[in-house]
Every structure is written in C-alpha cells, then in structure tokens.
Structure prediction request, 356 residues.
Amino acid sequence: MKFFRRAAALLLCAVLCLLPLSAADGRVSLYVGDRAWNLDSLMPFVESDGKQLLPLSVFGEFADVTLTVSEPLGSALLEGKDGWLSLSLNFGTCLDEQGETRELPLYRYDGEIYVEPSLLCEKFSLTFETTYAADGYLTARLTDGSEALTFEELLAVYGGSDSGAPVALKNPTRRTVEGTFMHPVMLVPAAASVPQLIRLLGSHSTTFALDPAEIEKYADVLPQIYASGHTVAYFADAGALASPAAFEREMQTANDYLFALLGKTSRIYVSTELTRDIPSIDGYFKKSCRMNLVADDLSSERMVNIALSESPDYGIFNFSLSSDADTRALYRGFFTKFDTYTALRAMPMTEASADR
Prediction:
C-alpha cells in the first residue's frame, strides 16, 4: 500500500510540474505535504532575525485542523481533533482548551500573519522541516504524517535551478509608489502640543514616539494621531535600555491601554542609540533615530540637506523633530523643502521600515 501511495504521489507531482508554479520566478519556498503550497508566491516561507516563520493560513490546509481568523475581533481559532488554540492577534498570546495561556508572538509580512511553527506543530501533531534546495535557498515543508515522499524526493520532483539567479520573495498585491521613504519621528512631545503638531505636519505622515509609562496622558489626542494618518511607537530612554525586561512590561501595559481605547497596538520601540546598542526584545521591533533636528538645524540649509539628501545616501532614513515652540515655528519651511525632493515620501514607522 505504501508503495502504491508513493507511486501515486510521484505521478501527481510529475503532472503538477507541467503546470506553472505559483512561487515567484518558478521557485517554491513552502511545501505542504507532497505539493507546493498554492499561495506560496503571496505568502512564502520567511526567515527573519534568526526566526523561521510560516503564514498562519498554511495551518488550515490540513483536514484535521480548522482555522478561523477574525481581524476585526483580533483573534484566530485553530481547532484540532484533540483540542484547540485561541490566538490573540493583538497581544501575541494563545489560550488552549485547558485554560492555559502561553506567549505566541505573531509577526506581519505584507499584512499577512506569520508565526513560529513549533507550538502549533506540537499542538496539532504536525511536522515542520527545512532543507536547502538546489539553488541554495532554504526551503520549508509542513506535513501531517500522510505524506508519501521524503523532502529530498519532493525537491527532486519539483526540480530547481542552481543558477544562483536573484529570487523575488513575493508578487506585489497592491499598488506602490516610487521613491525613498523617510520616517519623521516626534520624540515624546507634550500631549498638549500634539494637535498643533498634527496641523503643522500636514500630509507628512510621522511616528509619535511616546513613553509607554505615560500613555494615559495622551488619551485625548491618541484618536487624532491615528485618524490623521500617523502612528504610535514607544520611546526607549536610558532606563529602558538598562532594563529591557521592565520596559517590555511597560510596553505591554501601554498596549493593553491602547487596545482598550482604540483597538490598536504598537510593536515598535525607538531609541537615540546606535542599532547595535539597542537591546532586542522578542516580539517587538527596534529602530534607531540618532538625528534630532532642533530649531538651529531647521534654519540651516546645510543641515536640512544633510537630513534629506546625504543621510539617505548612507542608509539613514529616520530623523526626529524637536517639538519645542521655536522648532515648531520652522516646520512649514522644513516640509516645504522636503517636498522639493520629489523622490522622498514621508511615512510612519512599520515593522518593515528602516532600522535607522
């Protein structure tokens, strides 16, 4: 029986190989059982910061696992034969049928939900494995034990080039724009000044880096920040860098408050230190912002040119603006100059934005 199952699987794979592959440039990054995942070109296997991540959607491919995702409710439910897991999409935790809550950090890639597979594999008796394909790229496979082919046999059937040609990770799914993205930051502005800052920023989207321990002071202006196209990150001062565990707790508490108020959370923290000197906190994304522009800088054509022209040439895209009255008075002139650089776009920080 096993021989016939293997033969049937080989025949099926041979037929599939005659059809166009879904992965970008004909390359497969993620297999499910004995086949390439049909959404691989949109949601590939991802390696990031030492983590091996799979799209949450792929776990719903198995007959014994049912996946239900509700973005509006901020939750996902995975149900198997012997239990279930309820995932909080906002807080990175999961609850099982025994009432046990565990950490399960979630990540985003082009808007899709990604997760490290180990906990889900253990819960639903799945196997996750990786190996290098002929082209030298790491490839992943998720199985439920019903597969007929080994990973190596599967790769041989689907083939693969060893030409070393560049590989596109995914196909764009929505319109994009040309240009260089710059990330203006407001470092811990006074809550009372936020409405004026938003007016002065105009259409230039920015990031308000707030002290997580004082998030409640911004209750009246947080809705306006998000409604105006800006976002919130957390500012990591010297105390936060010295005690990252305590700072993580502060960010979690701030996220609880932010979610209760607006249904939002933030997974980004900003420091004025070099990226290498900022401690990593699992589940959060660190950003370095060492260029702080004050009134004297904004009134200097040389400094403005450094910030908007020379710095991007050296891979520096994050800068902060002081929010004192003297500096605010120069915002309009600064952003008028910003707009003369037609290739520049101002946008808030995201997980995928520049680290410095």
About this structure: Confidence is low (pLDDT under 50) at residues 1-25, 161-178.
